[in-house]
Design a protein that fits this description.
Distance between the termini: 22 Å
Order of helices and strands: HEEEEEEEEEEEEEEEE
Radius of gyration: 28 Å
Strand order of the largest sheet: 3-16-5-14-9
Number of strands: 16
Number of domains: 2
Helix content: under 10%
Largest sheet: 5 strands, antiparallel
Shape: rod-shaped
Strand content: 25-35%
């Protein structure tokens, strides 16, 4: 609670806020802050009077803190009063891997206002070998695209890694000696944040069914100075939903994309 803004002010009012006792000389050179403001200063080291203490407080109203959004959805972020900087990182979600059963689904975009990181594309399925495209990013001071998924999901092909984020899922030998000696490969999930999902492959003497791997999510980052964002303003935040993989076949898994995320840190 700050001191009164006008009218009568007493040494008791001052002591209750600053806690340096009832001798006014003890407050010389002490730092003060204005409430709900970035304005601060120091009381004189020389002459000092009660009127110098109007609308002051002894603690900094600006705060440091952080927020992390990883559960898919849309949120409202209220900008705190910060003194130095507010830094935002945005990761788009990874695309799902494709396979015998069909195409993987793209990952969802993540955003902080108009700073957007798009999700990776889903991998092709049922012999549509093309991997999902890496997600792009816009309006950050830094914008990176995620890695493209591998054209062939099988035989060790990797999905696209998230830009500045999670690694892509791999495609690994899931089972051998099934389906008249066909090899069945499964895809692992992309890691957080934004890794693309691995694809599946069925390969053998009778037929071959390849899927493409999912693309990695994009990444954007931006920092704001003390006057860059108004304290108390509300900003829309979106955390992207990971892309699901195509349905599994013959007990072979299909990788899902890594989740999207938004990180906010202020000092």
């Amino acid at each position: 609670m700050p001191t009164p803004t006008s009218g009568t002010i007493s040494i008791n009012d001052i002591n209750s806020v600053f806690g340096r006792g009832n001798n006014l000389n003890a407050y010389r050179g002490t730092v003060w802050y204005q409430p709900n403001s970035l304005v601060y200063g120091y009381f004189s080291a020389g002459a000092i009077s009660l009127s110098d203490f109007y609308n002051k407080q002894g603690t900094d109203p600006a705060s440091a803190g952080s927020a992390l959004y990883t559960t898919p959805g849309t949120y409202s972020f209220t900008v705190p009063l910060y003194r130095n900087s507010l830094t935002v990182q945005v990761w788009g979600a990874g695309g799902g891997g494709g396979g015998y059963a069909g195409y993987g689904n793209p990952g969802g975009y993540s955003a902080f206002s108009n700073v957007i990181a798009y999700g990776g594309g889903g991998g092709g399925g049922a012999n549509s070998y093309v991997g999902g495209a890496g997600g792009t990013a816009i309006n950050g001071s830094t914008n990176y695209s995620g890695g493209d998924g591998s054209t062939y999901g099988g035989a060790g092909g990797n999905s696209g890694g998230g830009a500045a984020g999670g690694a892509g899922g791999t495609t690994y030998l899931f089972n051998f000696g099934r389906l008249n000696d066909n090899q069945v490969w499964g895809g692992s999930n992309g890691s957080d944040y934004g890794g693309g999902g691995g694809a599946t492959q069925i390969y053998g003497g009778k037929f071959r069914q390849d899927g493409g791997a999912g693309g990695g999510g994009g990444y954007a980052a931006i920092s704001y100075g003390p006057s860059g964002l108004a304290a108390g303003s509300t900003i829309s935040v979106v955390a992207g939903l990971s892309g699901t993989g195509a349905d599994s076949q013959y007990s072979a898994s299909v990788g899902y994309g890594g989740i999207g995320a938004v990180s906010i840190v202020w000092t």
